[in-house]
Amino acid sequence: MARRKLRIEYFAILRERAGVDGEELDTEAGTPAELFAELSERYPFPEPDRLKVAVNDEFSDWQAPLADGDFVVFIPPVAGG
Amino acid sequence: MNQFELSAECLTPENYREQLRDPTCGGFSTFEGWVRNRNEGREVLELEYQAYEPLALKEGSRIVAEAVLRYGASKAFCIHRVGDLAIGELAVWVGVGAPHRDAAFAACRFIIDEVKHRVPIWKKEHYSDGNSGWGNCEACVEQAANHRAPSSRRA
To answer: What pLDDT is attached to residue B153?
Structure first.
């Protein structure tokens, strides 16, 4: 399977659970959904059903294909205001 | 003036108000969100707002532009704090100028409601009992923990 290098940044509860602000990952994950599943093996992350995802600073579909060098952010339920 | 901004410094509503002045506006509506000392029955000592800034700025600007278009407002601006805030501090400010008051009220309401749901900003509350929690985040994590625990039974 093709491998790709991704950059990931964590916010809020995910940052606390991961214990890091972000990381670079060499992965076979081809979609944000696959990437989140892989990360959930390492960190006590919540189920993804209430989360959103952004790729390269724009909201993305969980099944969108990831490319080498992509920047991925998982977005827990927001709470501004 | 960008339509949506984030600020690590104290907000200054009088400045935003002056910059929104417009001779086509007969009505001007504002909303201020303040840090409250209680949430869901717990005493809150202070708050921390964290933002995914590039996307927060994009999504916030889209919301303000949508409000202007949808309600025919003349000018609108929203600014949200990030970082550590004390009780009573101004966390978010919205201002909308429009030819008439109905549009100003409606667009102002639209902006604050959409910002709360769509802009990637998170609030960490520090409670008087020493605990802390990310608003809206903790429940989904607890749910996941219960779901994963092999011994857990679903009611």
So the answer is: 38
